[in-house]
Amino acid sequence: QVQLVESGGGLVQPGGSLRLSCVGTGSIFKFYTMGWYRQAPGKEREFVATITNNGLANYADSVKGRFTISRDNAKITVYLQMNSLKPEDTAVYYCRMYQSWGQGTQVTVSS
Asked: Model confidence at 29, in pLDDT bands (50, 70, 90)?
């Protein structure tokens, strides 16, 4: 059973930055594409970014140029660096590996 634990969320002003982390378990981590998704109140969960096992990243249009996904297979961790945050980035952010999801971490962008 794969476990994923997110951290790093919080309250930040518009234009600010946050870095989310997702720590996984298991040696299979390094073989899988990892992803970040988010769900705002009253909305469906949506794709944010993914990174393949060899480091190829893909982003939603809404976050391109502002967010950066990265991974450290030795630490079984995937990161999401979020810069130039906007109020519309407010959501619960989830980490995903194949069919496994973390519990989510809240990101609130507000002045």
From this structure: confident
CA atoms within 13 A on the CB side of 15: 1
Cα–Cα distance list, 80 to 1, 42, 51 (Å):
23, 23, 10
Q: What is the Cα–Cα distance from 14 to 88, expressed in whole angstroms?
A: 10
Q: What are the Cα distances from residue 50, in Å, to 5, 34, 78, 87, 109?
A: 17, 6, 10, 22, 22
State how far the Cα of 74 lies from the Cα of 6, in Å rounded to an integer. Answer: 17
Predicted confidence band of residue 27 (pLDDT cuts 50, 70, 90): confident
Give the pair of three-digit tokens for residue 31: 């073989």
